[in-house]
Design brief:
single chain; 86 residues; mainly alpha; 2 helices; rod-shaped
Amino acid sequence: MSIDEQRIPILATARELYGRVVYSHKTHEQEREIWSKKVCQMNRLACRRDDIFRNHFRHVEARMGNLCDCILRDSHHLFSNVAKQF
């Protein structure tokens, strides 16, 4: 058995492993892009929601406005924590 004949199975295994690594990396990269887009959309919606609530509660008495700010601040922390994961 020559050296070239011995290399054939080794090279085939190396090609297969390299292909699996590249495919796995590309899959994770695409998932990261998809989730980062979703997080950006969530942040945009949160900002719009905050603007709507602030405009709505602008005319409400001060205590109610403070309550609204507390709720919005807590929900903003929730979205921030989700965004930090990506």
